[in-house]
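Re-running Intraflagellar transport protein 122 homolog to confirm reproducibility after the cluster update. Everything else is unchanged from the original entry.
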Amino acid sequence: MSIGSLNLFCRVRFWWPEYLFTSMKTIQTWNEISENGAPVHSIAYSPDGSQLVAAVGDKVYMINTMLNEVTKKLRGHKDTVYTVAYAKDGTRFASGGADKFVIIWSNEGEGKLKYSHNEAIQCLAYNPNSHHLVSCATSDFGLWEPEQNEVKKVKVTSKILCASWTTDGQHLAIGHYSGVISIRNKEGKEVSSVVRKAPIWCLQWNPSREEAFEVLAAGCWDQTLSFYHLSGRQLGKDKQLRFDPCSIAYFSNGEYICIGGSDKKASLYTKDGIRLMTIAEESSWVWSIAHRPNQNYICLGTNDGLLNVYQLLFNTVHSIYQNNYAFRESMTDVVIQDLVTEKQIRIKCKDYIKKIALYKNKVIAQLSDRLYVYEHDGNEEDPQYRLMEKIMKNLECMLLVSTSNHIIQCQESALHMYDFKGVKVREWTLDSSIRYVKVVGGPADREAILVGLKNGVILKIFIDNPFPVQILKLNVGIKCVDLSASRMKLAIVDDNNQCMVYDLKNKKFLFQENNATAVAWNSEYEDMLCFSHNGTLSIKTDNFPVHQHKVAGTVVGFRGYKIFSLQMMSMNTIDIPHSATLFQYIERKEFERAYQIACLGVTDADWKLLAVQSLMGLNFAIARKAFVRIRDFNYIALINKFEKQIQQKSADEQLFLAEIYAYQGRFDESAKLYVKAGHPEVAMDMLCDLRRWKDAKDLAAKNENNQSINLRDLILRQARSAEEDHDLRAAADLYQAGNEYMKAIKIMGEQKWLDNLIDLCRTLQPKTDARAIATCAGYFRKQDNHQYAKEAYMKIGDFSSLMSLHVEMSKWEEAFDLLKTHPEFTADVYLPYAEYLCNQDQFDEAQIAYKKAKKPVEALKMIQKLGFNAVIEHRFRDASYYFWQFAYETISLNKPTSEHCNVSEEEKQDRQAKFEKFLQLAKLYYVYSFVRDYTELPFNSTDIRHLYNISRYLLMNITTETPYNMSKVSIMLSLAKLSTQLGDYSNARLAYQKLQTLRVPKHMRDEIDVQSILIVGKPIANNESEAPICYRCSSRNPSLNEKGDRCTQCDHPFVRSFFSFDTLPLVEFELEDGLSDEEAIKLINIDPVEDGNSSKSQWREDTSNENVQTLSFDDPEPVQEETMNGGNNGKMIIDPFARALLDLSKRRVVVDRAMLASFHKDEVFVVDWGETQVKKKFYKSTIPEIQITRCEACNSFFHEEDYEFEMLKGQGCPFCRTNNKQAATEEPQPAT
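Result of re-run:
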């Protein structure tokens, strides 16, 4: 190792890591080949970049970008998919293609919605600020949003090729095959247009919100790229591409543009259209290109079915000279920034910049095939750099540095120097590769360069001298070199990451540190340097230990308290306070050197520490300078006071120290010294000013004999003063300390200081301060702080207010716990609880709560609203159940056992009317639910005969106005189809004829027209087995009766099973005058006496033969009774009830006591709603062999086997959902 001489004047640092030799490159990170080589027409990323969707052939690929794999291949389209687009919230995306359909998918790949155009879908675009979707076809475009039920379509005169929304989502640009660019508002109205001579195949608005106005980039098939304003005005001239652009995408928040097309490449351009580089070369046309949001990834889709993802790596091109830092921005601009003031000057080179060199007032920019030399114009107010020279040579190099009048290029082990005309002046060939270059200054044309070589040699080269001078030789390669401010010390970092410091004057080795990557001296302090290693910056000062800062990056400069650090690709200015070094000098009592360190840059707290320590050390000069720096005039006045007392020899040492302690914040020591000096009142004033009330009280207790101390009066006086000065927090504390609790509570409550208020509340006594505690609770309640309010109310035992608090803040569990011990609050709890449950959609629990609150009317309103909502949502079976519940609960209010039965007769009649109306609605919606399932669902398990009966039942019961949301078209169409299947062609013809008079939806018209023609060819004869029979008059009825569901002969209403809806053999009868319902029921329940003329058949068993046991059935001889005409030649009547049935002269069947006594109770059914306003109805089965049962809750009739089967399934009554247990109690099951 040897050390040579070094004579330097000024210096400029250039540091170039090897990884910055290449400024930009691309890496392919993932690729996928489509099935059968299908073209990739369109691609789109989700807003967070986690998912990529691609239009590949007739499928939509879903790709997880985190795992780089295809997760799904969606097959919703029947033809080629041309376009995909992702919504702004990332929850859905859309696809469209040649099958003329647009499909809205969830981000999980589930199809949500589908609509069509008349031609193939060419492109899709989601609005970036809303859920609006524009879908563009050949001759029109559509605007869709989730809130609308239809797609608004706008006709156009030319085929649409592309579309894009502006950043604010207010305007839409559409590119046409005719070369027109149409700019429209979000309602679709055209506001401006641009006309070109070739198709506009791709366009995109700049997504950056930092631009002054919206800019549209358009790719035209005249092989140009052009830019336009929102008004349609062109920005600049056309940029020649030399290929047909097929896709365009902005990159890096609008800083760059990626374009792919017929040249089989994806190329990178600036946002102004200047070509920078080729991202990738493919084997066929690049149809689609997309940028992954917030990342430097680009995805390409090609015509031969390739999906490729590339990562773009940008390296920083920069140079540094003293405080000035030059770096490349947007690939074509040079920005010169003052690292101290952060002021910037921009140079627009309008070409791809490869290298930058900065020296004094000159900037050298190496472009793609030439070099530009710029010079500062010297204007201090508006500084600019002007172009000085153009060197039209392609001078490729590894490193580029500059001096006053020359350019120096580094090539491996050689340095080449050119003047600003491009003429080569000198060349130095060195013994080893160059690792480090630094221009260390000097006169113009005689500057010196400090060079570190790979073989460990450090050279000094004067540019006017062809011979380098060796100043130091190490055994390992050099990574970094720097000189101290006085040029007397040299710091080196070698390849072993050892930082070594040498004294060049005395030729001595001074210091060594391991694991260093770079080093820099502080240009403003001789004995301070910084070196970086392992994510830290270490500062070494004098002979003190190294002080470290956890800051990532590599140090390249050190000036005062600012360290210039290169972190990856950016230069950072880091402020490093020299507090540690300052503390070390203060500990040594070296206040002068500590002051020099403070001048480099420390915090105000460090300045104050230096000032105070200097003051305590009686170094008034340094103390005064430090206090002047932090503008602490009180301390300056104190220093003046001390100096004056010292001059007058009247200084009291204890008071002197007490005041210093007080200024330092050491108030305990200060108070003790004041008391010791005989001035306790001064200590009291100080403690009161500091709000240290406890210490003040302790001091007062210790000096209670001192008449000048009255603590409470002093506290209250200061409290009022603080309140007048709007220092409310201090005022509240003072009022509390002075036992003025109400004033303190008022301030804390109005200022919402709840934590302070609860602390005060906890100190109060319930017996003496109940009013204050209640006031605290009121403030807590006003601010919705349940826990604090509860604590306050519990403390004073105000359970009424506590219950009100629980209810108000929806703390129901605590309210019910309190209700267990205080049942008098039942009504106050359950009514608001029911309203709360309604808001939470817990309607079953709300109904129970309303009942417990004795508010059945509110429960009825809730049930009615649920029913109407179910109808609106087409949940007709739920609507039926809710309407049944409403009817049942309404009529239950009239029951004698009800608490609400004591109302006027008019109100009872109104309840009865509502009961009948909603019961009928419940039945109709229940029946209609089967029809809707039959017409809407692809599969249906209901028997077609049941559906046939249901359709007829609905048509015969809807005689006036059709209930809301019930489609008469669906009912009639169901009847027509079912009649055709069952051979009832007459009804089918009638149904199709009626359908012609109704307003039929468009999608049903063709089917109805075809079926109307086909039914004409069916036989005229009907299937008579389907015609209903009246069990009162035994006459056969037509399938449909315009007067309703009743017999056309005797007008007897049909009774139907509410499962199969076929006619049951039940006949309604009425009681004769004078016969009450109760007496009739008693007679029915009496078993009839069997006589010899009984029509019952007899079973006989014969066991005479011991080997054979015989069971025979014998019918007795019938007994003739008189006929209706008085003779015995007519039909034999064996039953008085049957005689009454055939008496058609009476509209209703009337029975007497004898008939009732002869009835078997199993054959008679009583419909009883348990309320006097609703008359009981009596029915008798005319065919006892048919087993019939009645639901005890809803009084609906069923075939017994059907009803029992439904019960076994656990679903309860098919109509009212009531099971046997509920039927016994006559309580309906709450709706679910």
